[in-house]
Amino acid sequence: MEAKLRILLPDQELLRFYEQMFISREFEERCAEQYTKGNITGFLHLYSGQEAVAVGATAGLHRDDYILSAYREHAQAIVRGADPRRVMAELFGKATGICKGKGGSMHLFDPALNFMGGYAIVGGQFPISVGLAFAARYRGEDRIAACFFGDGAVNQGTFHESLNWAQLWQLPVLFICENNYYGIGTEVHRSSALASIHKRTCGYDIPSEKVDGMDVISVYRAVKYASEKVRETGRPYFIEATTYRFRGHSMADPAKYRSAAEHEMWKARDPLPNYAKRLIEEGIGTRKDLDAIEARCRATVDGAVTFAEESPWPEDGEVWEDLYV
Amino acid sequence: MSEMTYRDALNLALKEEMRHDPSVVVLGEDVALYEGSFKVTRGLLAEFGEERVKDTPISENTIIGVSIGAAMGGLRPVAELMTVNFALLAMDQIINHMAKIRSMFGGQTFLPMTIRMPGGGGSQLGAQHSQSLETYFMHCPGMYVLYPSTPADAKGLLKSAIRNNNPVVFLEHELLYNSKGEVPEDPEYLIPIGRADVKRLGEHITIVAYARMTVLALQAAEELAQEGISCEVVDLRSLAPLDEETILASIRKTGRVVVVEECWRTCGLGAEITSRIYEHCFDILKTPVIRVSGLDVPMPYSRKIEKICIPQTESILQAVRNAMAGAY
Question: Is B178 in the same domain as B303?
Fold first, then answer.
């Protein structure tokens, strides 16, 4: 039997998980809508389906811990505390965006939140995470670096180089693989000789575990344990969270490489309704409470879209700013 | 002032900056215990210890990525890539990450980091260890590229690079490590980034050069003086940003110019400089711009034919004589 939720966390926290997952989903679905309207252009990789990972993992970290991610990172930024209005404005390419409209969907960044970036070269964030962990240790700071990446990234050289390096230098890095089983259209067993990704760390003697990435509580518990372990030992740890993206790789991908049956199977494991059901069953919140949360999230995202629409474009001269200190 | 080698001047710059700022760390393949493949990091481990002078695995891309993270996290890393040739393994972190991070994140962070890379040809190291890749870095905005020709410049420029809050690619010529010169002892001896240096004043023709090519240009100028040709030698020092003003001012004076580059001719830095000269000085040029370049071939091993692939003093002499004689 799984532990009752209340034993783990106060009601308020448990409800906050729901709110964070819901706003993440709502944000992404509104992004899709704004993309079809032409307000968001370029690449757009949506997170719908994977919310339990960002929410559970972020809750398992300290506020001072660094977070780095890849290019499917809107939810990670927002859950960490980024203002959804400024994230949406960034996607619209507006001057009020979180990176002044210069980054776009794939390059969110907010050092005040220790959110150290979305990186769009697969595997680019691995060594940067290791470097941040080194700086933290060097400066005697009580923080670790949490590095999110997908199943596709584990075949890049930087993955192996960085795992080796983090263990060799004994650095506090928590590697969190969001295994959604597909690197664009290539299923994990077609790209990885060892499709069970968490087992790959044995070559570097890094402890690892696999967790159900569709269950926010499982992710939270695993990351909480792992992050404390990393903090305590100063050594890396590795989590593989199995999950699924409900949409294609990007808005340009209709995801025809996946069967309807597979999709349905994962839809039945949608982290939002399942968690909502559990909250109600255990008396943490009523349907009415959850409705109120959902309404609040919708209003926030509405506000974000309006803010982005009404925000000014960057000035032309801005291209020459921020190039050098 | 004291006389020392280019290698020792670089070593002194590293030591002074590490003493000056505890956030400076040095990392790279064999930089600590082995004291560097070219011994530029000699004595660093002994003086500063294991946490500040770090040997790394042979993982060039990650050496740069770790330096980026360390810089973002408040350190001032100085990474050594054993040679510039190996920088090609790190081009993803250099070009896609290091050079982009400040701009693409809206100026919310900066990367006070330096990458030292020994390079250049002429030691019979074969095609994969003899390249002059300076233009690969110059082409990309978001970082500075420096390349000193003398021990004094090596010290002053490396110190400026380390103190600078932008990423700097710092090239060192392998054949200059043993060259000697007077170096200021002042621990605050800094050379501003972006300033070329007129290494020899002259009237008839300008020779624009950098790194080892400056040394050859000065030798050529000395010889040409005996023939009555007065050469002005402009040593670029900073390849990015380029000190256009100093180059153009010299040409406005002489009206003739030879650009010497060790790199391949095609899309080389000589092409960029030549283009800028034509854009600004077309009217006053007495002769076309002449380029002396590395040959567009992978470097051969045999010393007999390696020599013809790299500009020599003789090739500069010939180019200048041709320019003066109107034979081009």
Answer: no
Tell me which chain A residue has its CA closest to the CA of residue B143: A324
Summarize pLDDT for A107-158 with one digit per residue, the tens.
Answer: 999 999 999 999 999 999 999 999 999 999 999 999 999 999 999 999 999 9
Report the CATH number that the domain containing residue B261 is assigned in CATH.
3.40.50.920
Which pLDDT belongs to residue B327? 80
B228: contact with A, CB 8 A cutoff: no
B60 given a catalytic annotation: yes
In a domain, A261, yes or no: yes
Asked if the ipTM is above 0.95, the reply is yes
Model confidence pTM above 0.90: yes
**CA distances, B2 to each of B5, B9, B12, B180, B182 (Å):** 10, 10, 12, 10, 5
Domain, as residue range, for B313: 197-323
* Domain endpoint, select from B183, B214, B246: B183
Q: CB of A89 within 8 A of CB of A39? A: no
The verdict on a CB contact (< 8 Å) between A134 and B59 is: no
Interface A-B: count of C-beta contacts within 8 A: 134
Average pLDDT over residues B80-102: 98
* Residue in B227, B265, B231, B268 with CA at minimum distance from that of residue B251: B231
Q: How many domains does chain A have?
A: 1
Domain endpoint, select from B128, B152, B183: B183
- The distance in angstroms from the start CA to the end CA of chain B is 43
Q: Please determine, for residue B328, whether its predicted confidence score (pLDDT) is greater than 80.
A: no
CATH code, domain with A231: 3.40.50.970
Residues B176 and B268 in one domain: no
The C-alpha atoms of residue B22 and residue B32 are separated, in whole angstroms, by 17
Which of A96, A121, A132 would best serve as a mutation to test chain B binding (most B beta carbons within 10 A)?
A132
Q: Which of A138, A141, A168 to mutate to test the interface with B (most CBs of B within 10 A)?
A: A138
